[in-house]
Protein backbone atom coordinates (compact mmCIF):
# COMPACT_ATOMS: atom_id res chain seq x y z
CA UNK A 1 0.00 0.00 0.00
CA UNK A 2 1.32 3.45 -0.91
CA UNK A 3 2.06 5.82 1.96
CA UNK A 4 -0.20 8.48 0.46
CA UNK A 5 -3.41 7.75 -1.41
CA UNK A 6 -5.45 10.60 -2.84
CA UNK A 7 -8.83 9.45 -4.13
CA UNK A 8 -11.37 11.46 -6.12
CA UNK A 9 -10.39 14.70 -4.43
CA UNK A 10 -12.59 17.71 -5.13
CA UNK A 11 -12.53 21.26 -3.76
CA UNK A 12 -15.10 23.85 -4.74
CA UNK A 13 -14.76 27.53 -3.89
CA UNK A 14 -18.30 28.77 -4.61
CA UNK A 15 -18.88 28.04 -8.27
CA UNK A 16 -15.17 27.47 -8.96
CA UNK A 17 -14.07 23.83 -9.00
CA UNK A 18 -10.39 24.30 -8.04
CA UNK A 19 -9.69 20.56 -7.68
CA UNK A 20 -11.71 18.14 -9.77
CA UNK A 21 -11.63 14.39 -9.09
CA UNK A 22 -7.89 14.15 -8.45
CA UNK A 23 -6.57 10.65 -7.77
CA UNK A 24 -2.94 9.61 -7.29
CA UNK A 25 -0.64 7.65 -4.99
CA UNK A 26 2.80 8.26 -3.58
CA UNK A 27 5.02 5.51 -2.18
CA UNK A 28 7.62 5.86 0.56
CA UNK A 29 11.08 6.61 -0.83
CA UNK A 30 9.83 8.27 -4.01
CA UNK A 31 9.46 11.81 -5.31
CA UNK A 32 6.32 12.87 -7.16
CA UNK A 33 6.37 16.08 -9.17
CA UNK A 34 3.10 17.95 -9.27
CA UNK A 35 3.19 20.06 -12.41
CA UNK A 36 0.77 22.67 -13.58
CA UNK A 37 0.43 26.33 -14.46
CA UNK A 38 -0.66 29.04 -12.04
CA UNK A 39 -4.13 28.40 -10.68
CA UNK A 40 -4.15 24.71 -11.70
CA UNK A 41 -5.03 23.52 -8.21
CA UNK A 42 -1.64 22.36 -6.93
CA UNK A 43 -1.56 24.42 -3.72
CA UNK A 44 -5.18 23.61 -2.93
CA UNK A 45 -4.52 19.87 -3.28
CA UNK A 46 -1.37 20.13 -1.18
CA UNK A 47 -3.10 22.15 1.53
CA UNK A 48 -5.81 19.50 1.80
CA UNK A 49 -3.22 16.72 2.11
CA UNK A 50 -1.44 18.83 4.74
CA UNK A 51 -4.74 19.04 6.73
CA UNK A 52 -4.95 22.83 6.30
CA UNK A 53 -8.14 22.65 4.24
CA UNK A 54 -10.92 20.12 3.82
CA UNK A 55 -12.14 18.69 0.52
CA UNK A 56 -15.66 19.09 -0.86
CA UNK A 57 -15.47 15.39 -1.78
CA UNK A 58 -12.93 12.60 -1.94
CA UNK A 59 -10.43 11.11 0.44
CA UNK A 60 -6.80 11.39 1.46
CA UNK A 61 -5.26 8.39 3.22
CA UNK A 62 -1.87 8.58 4.90
CA UNK A 63 -0.54 5.29 6.16
CA UNK A 64 -4.07 3.99 5.61
CA UNK A 65 -5.71 6.63 7.86
CA UNK A 66 -7.94 9.44 6.64
CA UNK A 67 -6.24 12.82 7.06
CA UNK A 68 -9.66 14.44 6.69
CA UNK A 69 -11.29 12.48 9.52
CA UNK A 70 -8.27 12.33 11.85
CA UNK A 71 -6.02 15.32 11.06
CA UNK A 72 -4.36 15.22 14.49
CA UNK A 73 -3.03 11.73 13.78
CA UNK A 74 -1.81 12.74 10.33
CA UNK A 75 0.03 15.94 11.27
CA UNK A 76 3.05 14.34 12.97
CA UNK A 77 3.64 12.38 9.75
CA UNK A 78 3.59 15.45 7.49
CA UNK A 79 6.17 18.13 6.80
CA UNK A 80 4.61 20.95 4.81
CA UNK A 81 6.50 23.82 3.21
CA UNK A 82 4.11 26.40 1.74
CA UNK A 83 4.94 28.44 -1.35
CA UNK A 84 5.32 31.55 0.78
CA UNK A 85 7.21 30.58 3.87
CA UNK A 86 8.06 33.08 6.53
CA UNK A 87 11.24 33.40 8.51
CA UNK A 88 11.42 35.81 11.41
CA UNK A 89 13.89 38.61 10.79
CA UNK A 90 15.46 39.13 14.20
CA UNK A 91 16.35 35.55 15.05
CA UNK A 92 19.36 33.48 14.12
CA UNK A 93 19.15 30.28 12.10
CA UNK A 94 19.70 28.20 15.22
CA UNK A 95 17.07 30.14 17.24
CA UNK A 96 14.56 29.77 14.43
CA UNK A 97 14.94 26.00 14.21
CA UNK A 98 15.08 25.63 17.99
CA UNK A 99 11.83 27.59 18.30
CA UNK A 100 10.02 25.22 15.94
CA UNK A 101 11.58 22.17 17.57
CA UNK A 102 10.03 23.39 20.84
CA UNK A 103 6.70 23.84 19.04
CA UNK A 104 6.96 20.19 17.94
CA UNK A 105 7.36 19.24 21.60
CA UNK A 106 11.02 18.25 21.47
CA UNK A 107 12.77 18.76 24.79
CA UNK A 108 16.26 19.07 26.32
CA UNK A 109 19.15 17.15 24.80
CA UNK A 110 16.91 15.42 22.28
CA UNK A 111 15.87 18.83 20.92
CA UNK A 112 19.45 20.07 20.61
CA UNK A 113 20.46 16.84 18.92
CA UNK A 114 17.61 17.07 16.42
CA UNK A 115 18.26 20.75 15.57
CA UNK A 116 21.96 20.01 15.13
CA UNK A 117 21.28 17.03 12.91
CA UNK A 118 18.83 18.99 10.72
CA UNK A 119 21.37 21.85 10.42
CA UNK A 120 24.04 19.35 9.46
CA UNK A 121 21.81 17.72 6.84
CA UNK A 122 20.74 21.01 5.25
CA UNK A 123 24.28 22.46 5.30
CA UNK A 124 23.30 25.28 7.68
CA UNK A 125 25.98 24.73 10.33
CA UNK A 126 28.25 27.58 9.09
CA UNK A 127 25.22 29.91 9.22
CA UNK A 128 24.11 28.90 12.71
CA UNK A 129 24.49 32.37 14.24
CA UNK A 130 23.43 34.42 11.22
CA UNK A 131 20.19 36.35 11.33
CA UNK A 132 17.67 34.74 9.00
CA UNK A 133 17.04 38.21 7.51
CA UNK A 134 20.65 38.28 6.29
CA UNK A 135 20.37 35.05 4.30
CA UNK A 136 20.10 34.62 0.54
CA UNK A 137 16.86 33.23 -0.87
CA UNK A 138 18.45 29.80 -1.34
CA UNK A 139 19.65 29.73 2.26
CA UNK A 140 16.31 30.93 3.66
CA UNK A 141 14.69 28.17 1.72
CA UNK A 142 17.06 25.64 3.32
CA UNK A 143 16.06 26.98 6.72
CA UNK A 144 12.41 26.51 5.75
CA UNK A 145 13.14 22.97 4.57
CA UNK A 146 15.03 22.30 7.80
CA UNK A 147 11.97 23.44 9.71
CA UNK A 148 9.78 20.89 7.91
CA UNK A 149 12.22 18.09 8.83
CA UNK A 150 12.45 18.74 12.58
CA UNK A 151 9.78 16.21 13.57
CA UNK A 152 11.10 13.62 11.10
CA UNK A 153 7.91 13.37 9.00
CA UNK A 154 7.26 10.47 6.61
CA UNK A 155 5.67 12.68 3.96
CA UNK A 156 7.09 15.98 2.72
CA UNK A 157 4.83 18.37 0.87
CA UNK A 158 6.85 21.12 -0.76
CA UNK A 159 4.96 23.83 -2.64
CA UNK A 160 7.18 25.33 -5.36
CA UNK A 161 10.39 25.06 -3.30
CA UNK A 162 12.64 25.74 -6.30
CA UNK A 163 10.86 28.94 -7.31
CA UNK A 164 13.28 31.86 -7.54
CA UNK A 165 16.39 29.81 -6.77
CA UNK A 166 19.54 30.20 -8.83
CA UNK A 167 20.82 27.12 -10.72
CA UNK A 168 23.33 26.18 -8.02
CA UNK A 169 20.74 26.36 -5.24
CA UNK A 170 18.41 24.22 -7.39
CA UNK A 171 21.02 21.54 -7.81
CA UNK A 172 21.64 21.57 -4.07
CA UNK A 173 17.92 21.30 -3.39
CA UNK A 174 17.70 18.37 -5.80
CA UNK A 175 20.46 16.58 -3.92
CA UNK A 176 18.77 17.19 -0.58
CA UNK A 177 15.47 15.84 -1.88
CA UNK A 178 17.13 12.76 -3.33
CA UNK A 179 18.83 12.12 0.03
CA UNK A 180 15.47 12.45 1.80
CA UNK A 181 13.84 9.99 -0.60
CA UNK A 182 16.75 7.62 -0.04
CA UNK A 183 16.00 7.83 3.68
CA UNK A 184 12.53 6.49 2.83
CA UNK A 185 10.54 9.71 2.87
CA UNK A 186 7.79 10.30 0.34
CA UNK A 187 8.15 13.71 -1.32
CA UNK A 188 5.41 15.62 -3.12
CA UNK A 189 6.88 18.66 -4.85
CA UNK A 190 5.08 21.16 -7.05
CA UNK A 191 6.41 23.39 -9.75
CA UNK A 192 5.46 25.14 -12.92
CA UNK A 193 9.09 24.92 -14.03
CA UNK A 194 8.84 21.64 -15.83
CA UNK A 195 12.38 20.88 -16.80
CA UNK A 196 13.70 21.14 -13.26
CA UNK A 197 11.24 18.52 -12.03
CA UNK A 198 12.30 16.03 -14.70
CA UNK A 199 15.63 15.66 -12.95
CA UNK A 200 14.22 15.57 -9.43
CA UNK A 201 11.19 13.29 -9.69
CA UNK A 202 10.54 9.59 -10.07
CA UNK A 203 6.95 10.13 -11.11
CA UNK A 204 4.91 13.11 -12.26
CA UNK A 205 1.31 14.24 -12.11
CA UNK A 206 0.25 16.91 -14.56
CA UNK A 207 -2.67 19.06 -13.45
CA UNK A 208 -4.58 21.74 -15.29
CA UNK A 209 -7.77 23.54 -14.31
CA UNK A 210 -8.16 21.23 -11.34
CA UNK A 211 -7.99 18.00 -13.35
CA UNK A 212 -5.16 15.50 -13.50
CA UNK A 213 -4.29 15.05 -17.14
CA UNK A 214 -1.56 12.46 -16.78
CA UNK A 215 0.32 10.61 -14.10
CA UNK A 216 3.20 8.20 -14.34
CA UNK A 217 6.91 7.75 -14.51
CA UNK A 218 8.75 10.69 -16.06
CA UNK A 219 10.20 8.38 -18.75
CA UNK A 220 6.72 7.06 -19.63
CA UNK A 221 5.31 10.58 -19.92
CA UNK A 222 8.15 11.51 -22.21
CA UNK A 223 7.53 8.41 -24.33
CA UNK A 224 3.83 9.29 -24.45
CA UNK A 225 4.63 12.81 -25.65
CA UNK A 226 6.89 11.43 -28.36
CA UNK A 227 4.24 9.10 -29.64
CA UNK A 228 2.86 10.62 -32.80
CA UNK A 229 4.51 13.94 -32.03
CA UNK A 230 7.47 13.32 -34.29
CA UNK A 231 10.99 14.34 -33.62
CA UNK A 232 13.30 17.09 -34.72
CA UNK A 233 16.72 16.64 -36.27
CA UNK A 234 19.42 19.23 -36.78
CA UNK A 235 21.93 18.58 -39.58
CA UNK A 236 25.18 20.45 -40.10
CA UNK A 237 27.40 20.06 -43.14
CA UNK A 238 31.11 20.46 -43.80
CA UNK A 239 30.37 22.71 -46.77
CA UNK A 240 33.97 23.39 -47.91
CA UNK A 241 34.34 24.84 -51.38
CA UNK A 242 30.79 23.81 -52.26
CA UNK A 243 29.39 26.45 -49.89
CA UNK A 244 25.65 26.85 -49.39
CA UNK A 245 25.00 24.64 -52.42
CA UNK A 246 25.74 21.68 -50.12
CA UNK A 247 22.68 22.62 -48.06
CA UNK A 248 20.53 22.86 -51.19
CA UNK A 249 21.67 19.38 -52.18
CA UNK A 250 21.01 18.06 -48.67
CA UNK A 251 17.54 19.58 -48.70
CA UNK A 252 16.67 17.83 -51.97
CA UNK A 253 17.84 14.47 -50.59
CA UNK A 254 15.93 14.99 -47.34
CA UNK A 255 12.70 15.88 -49.14
CA UNK A 256 12.83 12.63 -51.13
CA UNK A 257 12.74 10.57 -47.95
CA UNK A 258 9.60 9.15 -46.37
CA UNK A 259 8.25 10.58 -43.06
CA UNK A 260 9.82 13.97 -43.60
CA UNK A 261 7.61 16.83 -42.49
CA UNK A 262 8.76 20.41 -42.25
CA UNK A 263 12.27 21.25 -43.47
CA UNK A 264 13.81 24.61 -42.68
CA UNK A 265 17.13 26.14 -43.68
CA UNK A 266 18.93 28.18 -41.08
CA UNK A 267 22.39 29.71 -41.29
CA UNK A 268 24.82 26.79 -40.96
CA UNK A 269 22.21 24.10 -40.38
CA UNK A 270 19.16 22.31 -41.67
CA UNK A 271 16.25 21.45 -39.40
CA UNK A 272 14.12 18.47 -40.30
CA UNK A 273 10.98 17.32 -38.59
CA UNK A 274 10.20 13.63 -38.90
CA UNK A 275 6.49 12.85 -38.70
CA UNK A 276 5.56 9.40 -37.49
CA UNK A 277 2.16 7.83 -37.24
CA UNK A 278 0.36 7.89 -33.89
CA UNK A 279 1.63 5.08 -31.72
CA UNK A 280 5.14 5.10 -33.18
CA UNK A 281 7.74 4.02 -30.67
CA UNK A 282 11.02 5.65 -29.81
CA UNK A 283 12.85 2.85 -31.64
CA UNK A 284 10.84 3.47 -34.82
CA UNK A 285 11.73 7.15 -34.60
CA UNK A 286 15.40 6.33 -34.17
CA UNK A 287 15.24 3.99 -37.18
CA UNK A 288 13.65 6.70 -39.33
CA UNK A 289 16.43 9.10 -38.30
CA UNK A 290 19.08 6.48 -39.09
CA UNK A 291 17.58 5.90 -42.57
CA UNK A 292 17.65 9.62 -43.29
CA UNK A 293 21.30 9.88 -42.28
CA UNK A 294 22.19 6.86 -44.43
CA UNK A 295 20.42 8.45 -47.43
CA UNK A 296 22.38 11.69 -46.99
CA UNK A 297 25.72 9.92 -46.69
CA UNK A 298 24.97 7.66 -49.68
CA UNK A 299 24.17 10.76 -51.75
CA UNK A 300 27.60 12.17 -50.83
CA UNK A 301 26.26 14.98 -48.64
CA UNK A 302 29.10 15.97 -46.27
CA UNK A 303 27.23 15.56 -42.96
CA UNK A 304 29.43 16.55 -40.03
CA UNK A 305 26.81 16.70 -37.26
CA UNK A 306 23.42 15.05 -36.98
CA UNK A 307 21.52 15.58 -33.76
CA UNK A 308 18.22 14.51 -32.46
CA UNK A 309 16.48 16.94 -30.15
CA UNK A 310 15.50 15.03 -27.04
CA UNK A 311 11.97 15.81 -26.03
CA UNK A 312 11.75 16.96 -22.44
CA UNK A 313 9.12 17.24 -19.78
CA UNK A 314 7.99 20.52 -21.26
CA UNK A 315 7.10 18.73 -24.51
CA UNK A 316 5.27 16.07 -22.47
CA UNK A 317 3.35 18.78 -20.69
CA UNK A 318 2.42 20.54 -23.92
CA UNK A 319 1.30 17.23 -25.44
CA UNK A 320 -0.93 16.17 -22.57
CA UNK A 321 -2.39 19.65 -22.15
CA UNK A 322 -2.76 19.78 -25.94
CA UNK A 323 -1.19 23.21 -25.98
CA UNK A 324 -4.03 24.74 -24.03
CA UNK A 325 -1.53 26.15 -21.57
CA UNK A 326 1.07 28.64 -22.67
N1 LIG B 1 -9.46 30.22 -0.58
C1 LIG B 1 -9.82 30.34 -1.84
N2 LIG B 1 -10.97 30.94 -2.19
C2 LIG B 1 -11.37 31.06 -3.47
N3 LIG B 1 -10.65 30.59 -4.52
C3 LIG B 1 -9.49 29.99 -4.24
C4 LIG B 1 -9.01 29.83 -2.90
N4 LIG B 1 -7.82 29.18 -2.96
C5 LIG B 1 -7.56 28.94 -4.25
N5 LIG B 1 -8.56 29.43 -5.03
C6 LIG B 1 -8.65 29.33 -6.49
O1 LIG B 1 -8.50 27.97 -6.83
C7 LIG B 1 -7.77 27.83 -8.05
C8 LIG B 1 -6.57 26.94 -7.80
O2 LIG B 1 -5.63 27.65 -7.00
P1 LIG B 1 -4.27 27.00 -6.47
O3 LIG B 1 -3.61 28.03 -5.60
O4 LIG B 1 -4.56 25.68 -5.90
O5 LIG B 1 -3.45 26.83 -7.81
P2 LIG B 1 -1.92 26.49 -8.02
O6 LIG B 1 -1.86 25.44 -9.06
O7 LIG B 1 -1.26 26.23 -6.73
O8 LIG B 1 -1.36 27.83 -8.62
P3 LIG B 1 -0.10 28.72 -8.21
O9 LIG B 1 1.06 28.10 -8.92
O10 LIG B 1 -0.46 30.05 -8.78
O11 LIG B 1 -0.01 28.69 -6.72
C9 LIG B 1 -7.40 29.23 -8.48
O12 LIG B 1 -8.35 29.64 -9.45
C10 LIG B 1 -7.51 30.04 -7.22
O13 LIG B 1 -7.85 31.38 -7.50
TrEMBL record:
Keywords recorded for this protein, A-Z: ATP-binding, Nucleotide-binding, Transport
Family label: Belongs to the ABC transporter superfamily.
GO terms, molecular function: ATP binding; ATP hydrolysis activity
PANTHER family with a match to the protein in the record: ABC TRANSPORTER, ABC TRANSPORTER, ATP-BINDING PROTEIN
The species this protein was found in: Hyalangium minutum
Descriptive protein name: ABC transporter, ATP-binding protein
InterPro entries given in the database record: AAA+_ATPase, ABC_transporter-like_ATP-bd, ABC_transporter-like_CS, P-loop_NTPase
Source organism, top-level taxon: Bacteria
Record CDD domains: ABC_DR_subfamily_A (cd03230)
Domain ABC transporter stretches: 4-234
